[in-house]
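Researcher: I'd like a candidate sequence for this fold, 181 residues long. If you have to choose between options at a position, lean toward the conservative one.
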């Protein structure tokens, strides 16, 4: 490296490696948690309906997949709620009479079937959570007092700009600029 390039390279290195000022987090209100507080009774119905809706939506997607690829191994199992996608995963592959079957289709079907299986099972888990959710009756008594307003110190007006290296893809690098206003 020549002497004329050494000074700009050193300046760039110092600029990139210069420490930035520490930034403190904004103050937040303290969270008050009482372990004896439970959600109201109405939360149970919402959870059960949300779980049923999720299960129904993912089941509908699974049935749609089974009609989209009717000759694929395990397509008929997708029409069975909750257990069907798990059974279909064991039969993932190409049909014997499908000469145009590609690895892409097999992988795509396996990914969609896995998403369907996890979605239906998750919906059932949410329904079970709703059934066994401990709740408390809603009281008509006085509500807890709200926390007093949080007074934040005045924000210091500052301006800061610095260069930041970044990667762009697998074989590329770049230099960006980050600023605080």
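Model: Candidate sequence:
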């Amino acid at each position: 490296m020549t002497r004329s390039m050494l000074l700009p390279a050193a300046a760039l290195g110092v600029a990139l490696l210069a420490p930035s000022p520490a930034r403190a987090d904004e103050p937040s209100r303290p969270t008050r948690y009482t372990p004896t507080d439970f959600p109201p009774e109405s939360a149970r119905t919402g959870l059960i309906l949300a779980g049923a809706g999720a299960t129904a939506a993912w089941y509908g997607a699974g049935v749609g997949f089974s009609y989209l690829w009717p000759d694929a191994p395990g397509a008929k199992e997708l029409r069975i709620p909750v257990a069907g996608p798990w059974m279909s995963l064991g039969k993932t592959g190409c049909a014997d009479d499908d000469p145009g079957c590609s690895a892409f289709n097999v992988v795509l079907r396996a990914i969609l079937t896995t998403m369907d299986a996890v979605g239906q099972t998750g919906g059932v888990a949410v329904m079970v959570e709703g059934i066994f959710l401990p709740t408390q009756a809603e009281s008509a008594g006085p509500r807890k007092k709200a926390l007093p307003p949080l007074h934040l110190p005045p924000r210091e007006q500052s301006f800061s700009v610095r260069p930041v290296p970044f990667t762009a893809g697998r074989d590329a690098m770049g230099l960006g600029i980050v600023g605080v206003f």
